[in-house]
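Run folding on both entries below.
>entry_1
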Amino acid sequence: MKIIQITAAYKPAYIYGGPTMSVAKLCESLGSWKDEETGSSDVRKCDRWIEKLTLKVFTTTANGKNELEVEPNQTKIVDGVEVSYFSRITKDHTHFSPALLYNLFKVLRQAQHDKIGIIIHIHAWWNLVSVLSCAVAFWHKIPVVLSPRGMLTTYTQTNRNSLAKNLIHKIIGKRLLNYCHIHATSEKEKYDILTLVNPKSIVVIPNLVQLNDHHVTNKEQQSINNENTAIPFKIIFLSRIEEKKGLELLFDALSILNFDFILTIAGSGNKDYIQSLKTRATHLKLADKISWLGQVKNDDKFNLLSKNDIMVLTSYNENFANVVIESLSVGTAVILSNQVGLANYVTENNLGWITKLDVHSVADKLNLSYQDNQKRNKIRKLAASLIFKDFNDKILAQKYIKLYTDILNG
């Protein structure tokens, strides 16, 4: 079985945040999976595919407005994964790469000639890498798994370049999407997808998330808010800074709180948009309560998350949200909007608070989290073990392998 993972951006393009990291983690786990001895019986029945499992990544040199410092149109090994980086002609958010499409065409034609079981797994939608790669696979009658990663919702269709998206969807997109086997990362994303398209099949498998086995030390525990109200309540937002994250809503809610707090904002985004947020914070008299850290290294974010009382994500749309798992893995409770894919998981396991997309609802949940020190301490003690169990790399990798083999077996 040959799996070609196609993504417009791959690490070290960390500027794109969680989706890029999840794709890389999936590829690394699949690359090492066949060497493990823990395969489920359902998967082991398909050994005829797995014995010759090969994995390749086709991506571009995309790194925001710039390009990665890699040799274009070449292949290199990145953390055990064979990755081919192809130059692109257009920048964000189209990523048009003729070299990638030409090489994909050659690989598919050769696979057909050799009668090799092959699957194309495409990550994200609404860019020319994804849409045209899907068209190439459709032309060759090669099965496609599509992970939209939040790109197939009514919100994303109307939020940016909506006219172009609707035009592409009507001309070619809908037909291609109906050809795909779709992978959703949460039940919410599955629901959103099925309101727009009718795929061949759809399955829910959570993201693989890079976790750091971080244990909170006594010294760190002392820095975490307790019943001593002289210590400011420590709130953190850690994500890519863009309109859909609901930071304006969060700022408005913070402006009506009656307790002392510090908000740390970690992440990068459009400079003009970030400046507009800073202006809003000044008007709301929040400027001296907000610390802007910019992009944080992956190795540092777990320590940063562990030093805060609560992680807040009031997004208008979020198919999964890796940062939720990252925060809980170090014991920091979360406040999420009800439009975040992991909201149900947090509710079912009592790992935080869920808010509506309303200023007073967000403020109310911030007040509850501040007051309920007992619940926050319980989450700090118990969340990590639950996260490492529920989001185990090997178990999740088996689910992806089963998805691929089920498709090849018809």
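>entry_2
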Amino acid sequence: MNEIDKHFPESPCPFCGIAEAFPYRPSTSLATSSTSSSPSSLTSSELLSCIPSNDNADPSKTDPSSFIVLAAENVIAFLDILPMTGGHLLVATRGHRRTVGQMGGREGADVGFWLPVLARMVSRVTGVSDYNIVQNNGARAAQVVPHVHFHIIPRPETLPELKSKSWTMFGRGMREELDDEEGEELAEEMRRVLREEVMKMEKGTGRGKL
């Protein structure tokens, strides 16, 4: 057994369950291609196919519910069901990788492409310009789910009151579970704004450009 495995309980990976429930659905042109392409080389319509439609984003596909925002070839993004603040988003590799060191170069490139786009989207949806991007590797480093994921956590001017009276990034027992109706509405709005961000990139009006 790998040394890092000893610090986690043996159980099905919830993030792998989300990845399986929300498969990558490439556009027709990509679906007929024998090779995959990096996100930076895709057209806007091909990138838009990475964002699930409302019909394909049913939260009840997993238990507990999953509020999916992005279902790309190598990257998935969904709301944290125990958010530190409103709009707390998780960005994970689709494949099961326990630590960043286990990621392949293509996975790293795809995460690198989507992370700033998703960060801009979170800022727009929440109206909060300040945010943390946090990534942990291993139980001693506060990694709770042993599957590579990045937290995008908005930092509003007024932080939520925590039981310890201080801002603890990953304090257990201090975070309230996301309401299903609220989560579904928020994820739908995030997908809408993410589509706008993708279109901005093609037009060269966003910070990124295809």
